[in-house]
């Protein structure tokens, strides 16, 4: 469902993503990991048509993202890094907008919206403007917008970050169910424990280059160990002054 | 004292960095038209008014330097109340606008009128922005629904327009005109000039259609499976609705022609020069050239439609439709 070949993005002299070649099959949950600045969000932007690759190509749902952008957008649901919400629309109006733009029949859209509001615990805040919502509510709204059109592929940039444990569990279950029904999920995250539970495919990127790509059961050791080895290892240095008397 | 010095140092760095965008500010259609008229009428007064209007427009843009520190951060810093007071007194002097005001006060003796101007500027730049506006930001929850898939986008765009001062500036002209007209005191010859004043007040929006969408909104636009012309059409529809509502008691045909011309010209700047706007302020245009490029055809179109007949709306509509389609394509190709 997602296929990248030599996908590259340069910003001047800086290469944010360097010849990324990757296949993600139908119904897979692919976790795309890497330290800050490794190129995860740039890759997500290229896969969703937000950014044009400098070279290489990305095929999503059998459409070339660079040349058939609108066709790709019709088939994917996206949770972008900045959530992509309008300050002047309420939570419910965002979902109504999504239903209208994706051409869902009004009745079906209404029913799905009610269910999503219920499941994601957004009922109380449904009439609240996005600018007045907490970050968690905003993220849940953006997640609901991604799910509402029942897409073939879900592309989620850090879906579990800044989310309460209950919502995190709900989102986890929704994604597992979606994948079981054939929806492909491509997500970035820094929460390795969550990734370990949910992912069927692990990809690690460092400085724009893919350094690991395998199915989750094929990991040679724990994800955390592998990540620290391949992506970045924690710098352990004692801060002497921390133990001294407060000044 | 050291923390205050450190904060002022950081604020100075931030102010210096933002000076480039500050100096790039170009006013809006109303101020440009006002300057031009005044220049021809009384060149002597032009200089002083230029300074004052410039300051009125500048100050909201530069604002209170202390506002560059997030309030939560300022609250948790371990500052004594005397240090906070000192910071409050000294930080405004980091703004070049305050120095300009001080120079003005020295240059022109402080008359009562100038004191009033200073008080007004202080209120606009320092007091009003510090008032929490969370409750009134969305004063316009109830916006009518529209048919079609662009319904929510049009509603959002109408709310955006209603959250800037341009609309209320237009109301200041329209409401008295409506009252005078109801009492039969407004001569018919006044309808058209007043319509032009209203359009000058609200038309800068057409140069910065995406100014209030924020980063998140712009991302969402790019994710929606909509062609660019539809996104622009939702913006246009909201502006035309507001125009119609404001010019209905005056000269709606002239108003619509002016609005279509303003949009036809403004799409380019809206997409290629996207400039963020601030709520509860007047829209700030892109450049003086863009403003003039918009004002002239706007007045010509309005005059044509008003005096030659509503048929002239057709070419205005065609120009706007072409511009919407063309710049919709530009919008689709614009990198994030």
Could you give the count of β-strands of chain B? 0
Largest sheet of chain A: 6 strands, mixed
Distance from first to last alpha carbon of chain A: 58 Å
Q: Which overall shape of chain A is indicated by the principal axes computed on the Cα atoms?
A: globular
Treating each run of at least 4 consecutive H or I residues as one helix, how many helices of chain B? 16
Helix percent of chain B reads over 70%
Helix content of chain A: 25-40%
Number of helical segments with 4 or more residues of chain A: 9
Please report the distance between the alpha carbons of the first and last residues of chain B. 44 Å
Output the helix-strand order of chain A. EEEHEEHEHHHEHEHEEHH
Strand % of chain B is under 5%
CATH superfamily of chain A: P-loop containing nucleotide triphosphate hydrolases
Number of structural units classed as domains of chain B: 2
Structural class of chain A: alpha/beta
Describe this entry's structure for a reader.
The complex is a heterodimer of chains A (247) and B (336). Chain A is α/β, with parallel strands linked by helices. Chain A has one domain (2-232): P-loop containing nucleotide triphosphate hydrolases (Rossmann fold, 3-Layer(aba) Sandwich), CATH 3.40.50. Chain A is 36% helix and 25% strand. Chain A has helices at 40-47, 69-75, 91-101, 106-119, 135-147, 165-180, 192-198, 223-230, 240-243; strands at residues 2-11, 14-24, 29-33, 55-60, 63-64, 76-79, 153-157, 184-188, 201-206, 209-215. In chain A, the strands form two sheets. Chain A has a six-stranded mixed β-sheet, sandwiched between helices. Chain A has a four-stranded antiparallel β-sheet with strand order 2-1-4-5, with helices on one face. In chain A, helix 3 packs antiparallel against helix 4 (106-119). Chain B has 336 residues and is mainly α. In chain B, 72% of the residues lie in helices and 0% in strands. Chain B contains 16 helices and no strands. Chain B has helices at residues 2-23, 29-41, 43-62, 71-76, 81-90, 96-107, 112-130, 134-137, 151-162, 165-182, 191-202, 214-223, 228-247, 252-272, 288-308, 313-333. The longest helix of chain B has 22 residues, at 2-23. Chain B is globular, with a radius of gyration of 22 Å. The mean pLDDT of chain B is 81. Chain A binds chain B through residues 45, 48-52, 69-70, 73-74, 78, 80, 82-89, 93-94, 96-97, 100-103, 129-132, and chain B through 134, 137-138, 148-153, 155-157, 159-160, 163, 212-217, 219-220, 222-227, 332, 335-336.
